[in-house]
Amino acid sequence: MTSLRLTRSQDQIASRLIALLISLIGLTAFFYPFFLSALPSDATANVRAGDAPVIFGILMPLLLLLIVAELSSQRMNAKIVAALGVLTAINAILRLPTGFGDSPTFFFLPMLLGYAYGARFGFLHGTLSLFVSALLTVGIGPWLPFQMLAMGWIGMGA
Predict the structure, then answer these.
(1) Which residues of 76-107 are buried (b: 16+ CB within 10 A; e: fewer)?
(2) pLDDT tens-digit profile of 84-141?
(3) What are the C-alpha distances in Å from 60 to residues 37, 90, 121, 131?
(4) In which region does residue 101 sit, left (phi positive, over 0), alpha (psi from -120 to 50) or beta (all else)?
(5) Is residue 39 part of a domain?
(6) Could you tell me the pTM of the whole model?
(7) How many angstroms separate the CA atoms of 29 and 52, rounded?
(8) Rounded distance, CA 67 to CA 119, Å?
(9) Domain residues for 14?
(10) What is the sign of the dihedral through the CA atoms of 53, 86, 89 and 102?
């Protein structure tokens, strides 16, 4: 019988490929309306609002898969996942004093963590902290998956 267990280097490659896949899906979601042949009229201006739940439905399982891939590659352990959760909650709370506007401190933590813990950790922290803060500020709408991707890229680019 063959084992389905991957080696550590294969796990790291899988983790990188998942992060790349998430970014490619995000870039496609951002830019595909620019390549459509017909411009929307006033009556169909919100026709793309139905795309956001689909993108969100694809994004969240892929983020979970990225966390699992990071755990299996041993880049993350239980302590790092706990730190990710606590830092995500702290960053979500940093957005509360400003309400619906954004605070510069909200963007600082994903950049700092992306630099300190690595690009994929910064990406996970950025996307998850925006998701949790949207739950706290009742800011869930068709813009949420796009904001999550943008914040993840901010954390990844540090």
Answers:
(1) beeeeeebbeebbeebbebbeeeeeeeeeebb
(2) 999 999 998 888 776 566 667 788 899 999 999 999 999 999 999 999 999 988 888 8
(3) 30, 20, 15, 10
(4) beta
(5) no
(6) 0.84
(7) 9
(8) 13
(9) 8-31+52-156
(10) negative
